[in-house]
Amino acid sequence: MDELAAARRTMGTATLPAGDAYTIELRRFYDAPVDDVWNAITDPERLGRWLKPVTGDLRLGGSFELDGGEHGEILQCDPPRLLRVSWLFGPEADEWPGTSEVEVRLSPGPADGTEFELVHAAAVGEPMFPTYGPGAGGVGWDLHLLTLALFLADGEALDHEEFENLPAGREFVRRSAVAWGEAHLAAGGDRDQVAAAVEATTAFYAPAVNER
């Protein structure tokens, strides 16, 4: 829960090749040097231990695919400060290029640590947002950044499926969904729609035990 509280969550706007987009933004501090964090997000072996196994032509202009089906192109790479990729999920998404991008920015922080910022931009009108709001992607990123924190601290990986079946994991997901609801409200979201989105996101990531 401390790791969940360590992140600041906001929503914003952006412009993608496909048009207007909304953003979910996470900012937090990692007690690890910039070069170590950069290596953890770009080295295939280390990336696979906290995010998902990755394959592809992992260089600027190349393409990647994660074990979960997420895939895209490496659009910008400025070691050790900036990585930007297109981010698509499922074969149907290839029919709408330019609709989703993820950008990670690193900068030196206090005590040889790292200020970490992740911005995920998705085209306005993408189908998940009306039901789940920013929590559709935000809760998943919260889980991955928790895993990254543990990995940077001691090299251990977190099994998300196992974690989400534990009481602590279900509470983490619930609080993450609520936190993204608060970010949505702060960005001008309708209160009733936000409440419904938080409920739907919580049910998606942490369904009732008898529904599993």
Automatic annotation (TrEMBL):
It comes from the Bacteria. InterPro entries: ASHA1/2-like_C (IPR013538), START-like_dom_sf (IPR023393). SUPFAM superfamilies: Bet v1-like. Residues 31-127 form the Activator of Hsp90 ATPase homologue 1/2-like C-terminal domain. Pfam families: AHSA1. Belongs to the AHA1 family. This is Activator of Hsp90 ATPase homologue 1/2-like C-terminal domain-containing protein. It comes from Mycolicibacterium hippocampi.
